[in-house]
Amino acid sequence: MANQPMVVSEQLESIVQSMLEDHAERLAVLATEIWKNPELNYKEVIAAKLLTDYLKENGHNTTQPYGGLQTAFLAQYQTANFDASKHPTVAVLCEYDALPEIGHACGHNLIAEAGIGTFIAATKALENSNLQGRVRVVGSPAEEGGGGKVRLLHAGAFEDVDFAMMVHPSPLDILHPPILAIDHGIAEFHGRASHASLGPSEGLNALDAVVQAYNNLAMLRQQLKPKQQLHMIIAHGGDRPNVIPSYTRMEYHIRAPTQKDIQQVRAKVALCFQAAALATGCQLEQTLDGDSYSALMSNHTMLSVFKHYQEKQGTKFPPIPDLAGGSTDMGDVSINIPSIHPGIFVGKPIMIHTKEFQMLAGTPEAHGYVRKAAASMAMLTLELLANPLLREKVRAEFAASKLTFVG
């Protein structure tokens, strides 16, 4: 990852740091209140109000609902002579939905804190500079299922955004987390019911079909490439043992490192289902639901700037373990707009989506790490506004990466 020359003045960097220090206590309270009131996807009413109220208190108008989503929001600041045809727009994203039963075990309360902090600090520096551009903070609900960012993309919420960024709490500092693409699919088999003892030959056994499909997929696994994954359950296998099932349903996930990989595995999975239907005489209905996400296409040019400012604040990036990775709707943003989604250490090397991480996300020690990340994102924002050569390099990398990543 090549180092980029930094052009933003130390005076503006000092404004960013001072702004975050001045707001540190209030931002921590904001994150803690969200942590205390976990809300599931598309129900983040309290969180959205806390965040938009904070923005309004600091002089920023907000739009909510946004992009057709009730708990999404937008705030923006643009310079007096802003011209969208000449000057860039940078979007900082917030997440704030929680998980069932274990609340903010993914640390989305801290993501919201980082996003709001970045926006507050970057806009204050921008007010005190000769730079031209526009900075937005976008509140994106429903990352934990529901695909909030995907819906915002489809609604056109990012059409005039040039660069996007967010951070995510993690067991370690990692610039390019291995975020995989994911398909959420459903396969339904329709057979014909019959008495299992008196007339089995009159039936078409949908349970046989779904079991055969499961076995087909299990055998397919050994032919998959590294980090191509299949996860599946039989969600409905029939109703009574003395009735040959006429309806069964499998729910499955496909994960892979790129969109090209997803497409390849998707085709093989479809053949597994079709073979099961053919062998049993059942009818197949296969669908993808709205929670399918792209893999993350991190922009390494942007990451190099983020890394510079993180290291300047004392952050060290350890060797990266060979992790399989999860999935996020930020992946869909990243294949449409040059983006970053680095992981940030927040105090202890604890895996996310655990009760232990849920407790960590509510501790005072986490906020210092979040504040550093917000400063680095704010400085990356200013560097993008200030440096046309950096913007050109980011865009060139994005175009080249998309050819191999998406096709």
Helices and strands, with pairings:
Layout: H1 10-36, H2 45-57, E1 62-63, E2 73-78, E3 89-94, H3 108-127, E4 134-139, H4 148-154, E5 163-165, E6 168-170, E7 181-190, E8 194-195, H5 206-220, E9 229-236, E10 243-244, E11 247-256, H6 259-280, E12 283-288, H7 300-312, H8 330-334, E13 339-340, E14 343-345, H9 355-360, H10 365-386, H11 388-405
Parallel strand pairs: 3-4, 3-5, 5-13, 6-14
Antiparallel strand pairs: 1-2, 2-4, 7-11, 7-12, 8-10, 9-11
Domain Peptidase M20 dimerisation: 187-276
Organism: Ramazzottius varieornatus
InterPro entries: Amidohydrolase, Bact_exopeptidase_dim_dom, Peptidase_M20, Peptidase_M20/M20A_hydrolases, Peptidase_M20_dimer, Xaa-Arg_dipeptidase
Number of domains in the coordinates?
2
Overall shape: it is: elongated
In CATH, the architecture of the largest domain is 3-Layer(aba) Sandwich
Distinct helical segment count: 11
Largest sheet: spatial strand order: 1-2-4-3-5-13
CATH topology of the largest domain: Aminopeptidase
Main sheet attributes: strand count, strand direction, barrel closure: 6 strands, mixed
- Assembly type: single chain
The first-level CATH class of the largest domain is given as Alpha Beta
Q: Helix and strand succession?
A: HHEEEHEHEEEEHEEEHEHHEEHHH
Estimate the strand proportion.
15-25%
Cα(first) to Cα(last) distance is 23 Å
CATH superfamily of the largest domain: Zn peptidases
Mean of all residue-level pLDDT scores = 95
Radius of gyration, taken over Cα atoms and rounded to an integer in Å: 24 Å
The total beta strand count reads 14
> In terms of per-residue confidence, which ranges show pLDDT below 50 for 5 or more consecutive residues?
none
Instruction: Label the structural class.
Output: alpha/beta
User: In percent, how helical is the residue content?
Assistant: 40-55%
